[in-house]
Amino acid sequence: MKTFDLAIIGGGAAGLAAALSSFDEKLNIILIERDVQLGGILNQCIHNGFGLHQFKEELTGPEYADRFIQSLKEKKISVMLESTVLDIQKKEDFQLIISSPLHGYEHIHSRAVILASGCYERTRGSVLIPGTRPKGIMPAGSAQRYLNMEGYLVGQRVFILGSGDIGLIMARRMTLEGAQVLGVAEIMPYSNGLTRNIVQCLHDFDIPLYLSHTVTQIKGKDVLESITIQQVDQHFEPIIGTEKTFDVDTLLLSIGLIPDVALFDGLSMIKSPITKSACVDQHYMTNIDGLFVCGNALHVHDLVDWVSDEGRKAGEQAKKYLLTPMNVEKDDHAIVTNDNVRYVVPHHLDMNHLNEPITLSFRVTKKMTSAYLQVIQDGTIIAQKKSAYLAPAEMESIVIKPDQFQSKSPIHLHVEELL
Amino acid sequence: MKELICIVCPVGCHIHVDEQHHISGNKCPRGYQYAFVELTNPKRMLTTTVKTVFHNVPRLSVKSKEPVPKAQLFDIMSELNHLLITKHVKIGDIIVSNILGTGVDMVATKSTFSEHQKGEAHEIYPID
Asked: Which whole-number Å values give the CA distances from A46 to A16, A351, B109, in the listed order?
């Protein structure tokens, strides 16, 4: 039975950064990846635009991953490839049950665990589209993997439901590879994708974007034959008479991502109903002592740069946890938010350990063109930042320095719109 | 009259260009520059894949080292479709130099061999 100080689950953007920052000569660290190579979802994101914040240049996904993989090779961090963690149990330490082609079924023990398992795509079942169940309907990220890594173009006449970035990127990618993309439907009156992607993936190729529209009918016995879209009213109810039918063989879904935290099932984890993942403190630690979560497994990010950042911080905290055990009791208090804030990570702060700067990452509930971001404690603003543009699709953050705290009272995060 | 959405920053100004090529609607000079380039010589980065003979990497991801003229994107795609990579390449290696006379090289954004091989300096667990 192998025993480690730290097991990092997932060798994508978050796990790679966590492995690098947790590295210490005194620690025995293992990075566990289920694919045959490190890099995670970055390997299929062959488009560029990654790394503007981390490296001050625009890289493609594989290039971005390579920077981290090269750094990892310089350090003596063990990597297990083609290894899927099936279960985590916590007794004295953590026990991980792992399956791999090379070693079959095995157990390893670890004093601490960082979960960096990323997220998964919502499927047809989560949006309940009426009609038959033919083949040709799949999440956009799956089609991306088929095309960019395996070399299979999944269809010739394509419609895309959801205007998230993956859907937009795939609209361009499939067009360049010779498929005809007939349109993108978005149920909201605005797109959640980056403007840059709306322009360079849709406008550049004259692909129509149908806002306030959704797919209301799917036809086809074995293979997809057609889809029908309809405009929706403000209650998202389809409007009769607005039907448009498209003969397509492929419907790609870009309708959202959910943190992949199936490994929490055997643990008594406290979860957030909004992020659908663990509630963590400023050290990215969950309510289970020694279990950290970061990256898209914690909350879905819009830039990989922020994923790496979070992975790095979680790695640093795990290292500190292992090398300098806390001798002061924790004093957790949830961060209270006003209505303009959808969620904030960390969910709570341990007020007995405020000796480092804390980054609050959050999303707002609506688009705002001018607002104050305020951290309030004991009725006093202790940190404040003005923002010229806020939208639900863009993650915001504010940093609180240790000397800005007035006391150990709970803090409030308010976003005040300037009208 | 032409309308553009500026993509330089997240604000996304709607920029109007009239028949006299007068640019308006931009809230900053960068928007003016964006509109000017878009109307005179728009260029785009091209990222795609090429076929390989390698089982572990059946498709090699590549990119144009610099942006290429937008009007030539599909021509470059069909040129790349004829390629088959038979020798191992490293990240950054030139796959096609001066593609279609654009003066821009297509380079690999990935290496064809696995980065984690047994016997390399990097330790793989479990080596046993």
From this structure: 18, 42, 8
Residue B10 touches partner A, C-beta closer than 8 Å? yes
pLDDT digits (tens, 9 = 90+) for A124-147: 988 888 899 999 999 999 999 999
Q: Rounded distance, CA A166 to CA A169, Å?
A: 5
Specify the DSSP element, H or E, that contains A314. Answer: helix A304-323
End-to-end CA distance of chain B: 70
Say whether A62 and B59 touch across the interface (CB within 8 A).
no
Do A252 and A139 meet the contact criterion of CB atoms below 8 Å apart? yes
| Alpha carbon A355 to chain centroid, angstroms | 28
What is this model's ipTM? 0.89
pLDDT by 10s per residue, chain B, length 128: 788 888 887 677 889 988 888 899 998 899 999 999 898 889 999 999 999 999 888 999 999 999 999 999 999 999 999 999 999 999 999 999 999 999 999 999 999 875 444 433 334 443 33
Q: Which residue has the tokens 């007794």?
A: A91
A128: number of CA atoms within 13 Å, CB side? 0
Max Cα–Cα distance, chain A, nearest Å: 69
Q: Where are the alpha helices (DSSP H) in A114-185?
A: 140-145, 165-176
Q: How far is B87 from chain A (nearest CA, A)?
A: 18
Looking at chain B from residue 66 to 125, which residues have their Cβ under 8 Å from any Cβ of chain A?
70, 73-74, 77, 91, 109-111, 114-116, 120-125
Of A164, A128, A142, A136, the closest CA to residue A246 belongs to A136
> Looking at the DSSP assignment, which residues form a beta bridge with residue B62?
B48, B108
Task: Please report the sign of the dihedral spanned by the C-alpha atoms of residue A234, residue A235, residue A240, residue A243.
Answer: positive
